[in-house]
Amino acid sequence: MAFIALGVTGGIGAYKAVEIARGLQKNGHEVVAVMTRSATQFVGPLTFEAITRREVITDQWKAGANADIEHISIASTIDLLLVAPATANTVGKFANGLADDFLSSLFIATKAPVLIAPAMNTNMFEHPAVVKNLETLMARGVQVVDPGSGYLACGWIGKGRLAEPEAVVAAAELVLRSHGGTTLSGRRVMVTAGPTYEDIDPVRFVGNRSSGRMGYALAAEALRRGATVTLVSGPTHLTAPHGVTVVAVRSAADMHAAVMSRAAEQDAVIMAAAVADYTPANPAAQKVKKGEGEMTMTLQRTKDILGDLGRLPSRAQRLPVLIGFAAETQDVVAYAKGKLETKAVDLVVANDVSRAGAGFDVDTNAVTIVSVGGVEEVPLQSKSAVAARVLDRLEQLLIAVPSRDAAARA
Ligand code: CTP
User: Fold this and answer.
1) Which of 306, 308, 333, 353 to mutate to test the pocket of ligand 1 (most atoms within 8 A of CB)?
2) Fewer CB atoms inside 10 A, N or C side of the chain?
3) To which H or E segment does residue 81 belong?
4) What is the pLDDT of residues 203-213, one digit of tens each?
5) What total number of domains does the chain contain?
């Protein structure tokens, strides 16, 4: 989830900005509309207010605007400034550092990435002044969605009309992703990864085929989005991204201790590890010598880490938000739904490990994300892309949950 300021300026394409706002919201983002005076000639602020469910910023000088904290803080809290449509006038003001209304002041004040979707008549678009202004902006890192060619409102055919809303929304997503993020900044996320090794004796263990890749991808994505990340990892061959705090563990009991002792600091815990459900009841201190005939080993249940997290008193406030994984070979969704309840978790990411290309020891995965609200299929793709989908869902869940850091400061 990102917080996006949608600047709307006075072009006929302003009506398309309504669709853009909706598209961004559908992707889980929060949108605040900032309209220039001439934009209000094309679309009423009420339309944006109804859609974004926020007051629309139309005037820098409106009484109260400068006392309203959100108005003032917007430059530092937004993750993206998107201007669609951007008229020749606005492009010119941005390029020359003029700040005579809220939008142009916001452009100068914010450190967030800026994406503009110019829209104007073809001759205006091709005018050397506009070309130069766009070049100046691009050289300063402003990203531009190319205007589409087609029928312009003035009856001409040519380049200049506002790009289609879906194209603008897709470009916004790209910019948000490439700028990595701030969408989880101030949040602490703990991820578990890999298998656990349950020792039989000093040289043997019971383990499983988990490579840890899904958990490491989740940790990397959470870090990229600005979270403070702790990765509790069973034995793997992977290297964690720089910036992640790694806690190396071996057994399910080690992992239980590592996770539970840090749970009170976390905003979210994602249990991607394939934790052993059973461990040898009496591991031998010395190497077990072979004998004649069969050997029987007694296994005992390990502690259920996710189950214990679900029983923490802070879960009454949804803290930490809990995401579990379920590796199944059949009835994936039904089992995942069961786990939602029995383990009191917010989301279960269910894996059909019998499917080619999904599950253990491959770079790709296909999962089903199950919550009380429904079932989302995430088709086969890289584990990083799957991690991004899971974290999008986490961000949505976190909207309703105060951050531990903020609570500690209060
Ligand atoms: N898990 C855990 N502690 C354990 C075992 C599992 O926290 N001792 C977590 C895993 O990290 C995963 C989820 O619980 O997030 C998996 O749940 P589990 O009930 O163990 O399911 P499976 O082992 O996948 O399936 P089954 O119920 O068939 O054992």
Assistant:
1) 306
2) C
3) strand 80-86
4) 999 999 999 99
5) 2
